[in-house]
Amino acid sequence: MENKKYPVDSAFSVADRRLKSTPSIIAIDGPAASGKSTLGRRLADAFGYLFFDTGVMYRAVTWMALQRGLDVYDETAVTALAESIQIDVLPASKSDGRVCDVIVEGRDITWAARRPEVDRNVSIVAAYRDVRRAMTEQQRRIGLRGNVVMVGRDIGTVVLPEADLKIYLDASAEERARRRFDEIIARGGQADYDEILSKVRARDRIDSTRAVAPLRPAEDAVILDSDKMTADEVFAKVKALCDG
Ligand code: CDP
Ligand code: CDP
After folding, report:
1. Cα distance between residue 241 and residue 231, in whole Å
2. What gap in Å lies between CA 222 and CA 12, rounded to an integer?
3. Burial code of 75-89, b = ≥16 C-beta within 10 A, e = fewer?
4. Is there a contact between 90 and 101 (Cβ–Cβ < 8 Å)?
5. Taking burial as the number of CB atoms within 10 A of a residue's CB, which of 21, 22, 142, 223 is the most buried?
6. Mapping DSSP to helix (H, G, I), strand (E, B) and coil, where does residue 3 land?
7. How far is CA 124 from CA 28, 73, 109, 205, 233, in A?
8. Integer Cα distance of 239 and 206 in angstroms
9. Cβ contact 24:51 at 8 Å
10. Closest residue (by CA) to atom 19 of ligand 1?
């Protein structure tokens, strides 16, 4: 197990934290496969809120850049693309395991945006200042309407610093790689654990060391280490926080 970068439950003790009313804006940040979407979806269902996974926007830009044959290291070209494409995130139109539909220029790219080539390149694209500016503006507009659970890397720190509840969900890289591995096997696919682990680590490294909006907990975030917790336990703990 790697050393944890942050003291667990440090910013606020989970047990001590009490909210006066159900939070209207809930921000969930953390590294890949820490369980953000799983938790976010369940909270959104429980409260009847909009669930918004901001990662799909960076994935959509990356997918489109690859589709158009752009060099992902060409910041000017990728930024121009991010500033011009229309990304729509709509309620799921099919029951094939998707949480929502991701539509770019009329094409349903929900699953395409999860392909390995997007995984490999998305953190490069997401590190560009003006790509982030374009995405953040759209995310903030949606988030400020309230009754929303927004999930990403910089929601509590940059996108919605006024969020009523900020969760930073962590887990070791080994555990997170195991979760992704299990997901692929459960879908009947083939996977190499060591390869997944090294990709998870590479993405963590870029996401947490970039100059703009790096992955880190907000000062007032509740930090949860989910290594030894089931998804049900994480949900129960956060739901209890929301219920005050
Ligand atoms: O689902 P998973 O955690 O693997 O990734 P994701 O949430 O779909 O995010 C994909 C990538 O987008 C991340 O590795 C980050 O590079 C970037 N991202 C970001 O920079 N800021 C966000 N608010 C959300 C995602
Ligand atoms: O959104 P993010 O990339 O942070 O993670 P996710 O897509 O929610 O995937 C997490 C995976 O780990 C899912 O297969 C969950 O069932 C599983 N899991 C979890 O979410 N929370 C735990 N405490 C343990 C496992």
Report:
1. 16
2. 6
3. beebbebbeebebeb
4. yes
5. 223
6. coil
7. 22, 7, 20, 11, 33
8. 31
9. no
10. 153
- R_g of the chain computed on alpha carbons: 17
| Residue of the CA atom closest to atom 13 of ligand 1 | 123
Q: Which of 100, 102, 121, 153 to mutate to test the pocket of ligand 1 (most atoms within 8 A of CB)?
A: 153
**Is 210 near ligand 1, meaning CB less than 6 Å away?**
no
Res 92: pLDDT: 84
Residues contacting residue 120 through CB under 8 Å, at least 6 positions apart: 199
154 CB near ligand 1 (under 6 Å): yes
**Whole-angstrom distance, CA of residue 171 vs CA of residue 134:** 29
Ranges under pLDDT 70 in the chain:
1-20
Do 166 and 238 meet the contact criterion of CB atoms below 8 Å apart? no
* CB 166 within 8 Å of CB 222: yes
Give strand ranges (E) for the chain.
Answer: 25-29, 50-53, 87-91, 100-104, 107-108, 148-152, 165-170, 222-225
Compute CA distances 167 → 17, 75, 242, whole Å: 12, 31, 11
Q: 43, 238 in Cβ contact below 8 A? A: yes
Q: What is the pTM of this model?
A: 0.92
Q: Which residue's entry shows tokens 């349903």?
A: 108
Residues 154, 131: Cα–Cα separation, whole Å: 14
Q: What token pair was written down for 209? A: 């060391």
Return the H-helix or E-strand segment holding 197. helix 193-209
The CA distance from 150 to 159, in Å, is 9
- Nearest protein CA to atom 4 of ligand 1, as residue: 32
d(CA 145, CA 76) in angstroms, rounded, equals: 32
